[in-house]
């Protein structure tokens, strides 16, 4: 049996962007995740130790956000790769990375990419 875990609206200040100034100064990003994992004995045994630890997932995302990248597509791929390596029970990840108030020459709330893997 599988189950889904969602972590929504994780906000980070990071240094991603195609412009030098973005990578130097940084800006705010939001990450949303949906992880699909094997339930195994987690629910039957009520066993926290066998569950995917939400704090550990958050910390993994935070580490990925620290790596400066030119595209948010690369950031999303880094997050997916790290989560699948660190959590063997996770077999599918949907990751949305949003850059808040991107410098596009006008007023815009965010630009986002969603990648599945």
Give descriptors for this structure.
117 residues; alpha+beta; GTP Cyclohydrolase I, domain 2; four-stranded antiparallel β-sheet; 4 strands; 32% helix; elongated
Give the biggest beta sheet: 4 strands, antiparallel
CATH topology: GTP Cyclohydrolase I, domain 2
The level 1 CATH classification is: Alpha Beta
Order of helices and strands: EHEHHHEE
CATH architecture assignment? 2-Layer Sandwich
> What is the rounded distance between the termini?
19 Å
Q: Helix segment count?
A: 4
Number of separate domains: 1
Task: Name the average pLDDT.
Answer: 92
Q: What is the strand tally? A: 4
Give the amount of beta strand, in percent: 35-45%
Radius of gyration: 16 Å
Shape: elongated
The named CATH superfamily: GTP cyclohydrolase I, C-terminal domain/NADPH-dependent 7-cyano-7-deazaguanine reductase, N-terminal domain
Low-confidence runs: none
Structural class: alpha+beta
Structural commentary:
- The model has no long low-confidence stretch (mean pLDDT 92).
- Helix 3 runs antiparallel to helix 4.
- The longest helix has 15 residues.
- Helix content is 32%, strand content 37%.
- The chain is built from 4 helices and 4 strands; from the N terminus they run βαβαααββ.
- The chain is elongated and about 55 Å long.
- The protein has a 4-stranded antiparallel sheet.
- By secondary structure, it is an alpha+beta fold.
- The protein has a single domain, classed as GTP cyclohydrolase I, C-terminal domain/NADPH-dependent 7-cyano-7-deazaguanine reductase, N-terminal domain (GTP Cyclohydrolase I, domain 2, 2-Layer Sandwich).
């Amino acid at each position: 049996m599988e189950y889904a875990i969602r972590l929504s609206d994780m906000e980070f200040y990071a240094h991603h962007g195609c412009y030098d100034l973005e990578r130097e100064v940084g800006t705010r990003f939001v990450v949303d995740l949906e992880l699909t994992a094997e339930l195994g004995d987690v629910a039957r045994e009520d066993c926290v130790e066998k569950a995917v630890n939400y704090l550990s997932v958050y910390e993994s995302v935070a580490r990925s956000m620290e790596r400066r990248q030119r595209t948010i597509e690369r950031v999303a791929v880094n997050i997916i790769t790290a989560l699948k390596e660190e959590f063997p029970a996770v077999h599918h990840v949907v990751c949305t990375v949003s850059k808040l108030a991107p410098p596009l020459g006008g007023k815009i709330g965010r630009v986002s990419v969603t990648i599945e893997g």
